[in-house]
Write a structure and sequence with these properties.
Elements: E1 4-7, E2 10-12, E3 18-24, E4 34-39, E5 46-51, E6 57-59, E7 67-72, E8 77-82, E9 91-97, E10 108-112
């Protein structure tokens, strides 16, 4: 069973930064495109960042220029650096493959509030 374990969330003031991590036990991790997703209660989960096996990246317009996704294939880990955080970034953040192939992890809560 593939495990996805997200960490690094917390409470931060607007304009602040957080770095999320996602460790996976998925075999051949380096061959998968990975994504960061977020979900607010009552809304659909949305993908905000994608990183291909090649390292190329893609972002949702809402986070472009503020979030940076990266990966360390040796550690089977993907990261999300979030800067200039806004209250509307408040959500539970998850990682998964792109397209989604694994069961969802527990996610990590990010709350942006003064």
């Amino acid at each position: 069973q593939v495990q996805l374990v997200e960490s690094g969330g917390g409470l931060v003031q607007p304009g602040g930064s957080l770095r999320l991590s996602c460790a996976t036990s998925r075999s051949r991790f380096s061959m998968n495109a990975m994504g960061w997703y977020r979900q607010v209660p009552g809304k659909q989960r949305e993908r905000v960042a994608t990183i291909a096996p090649s390292g190329s990246t893609n972002y949702a317009d809402s986070v472009k220029g503020r979030f940076t996704v990266s990966r360390d294939n040796a550690k089977n880990t993907v990261y999300l650096q979030m800067n200039s955080l806004k209250p509307e970034d408040t959500a539970v953040y998850y990682c998964n493959t792109v397209p989604v192939l694994a069961s969802w992890g527990q996610g990590t809560q990010v709350t942006v509030s003064s």
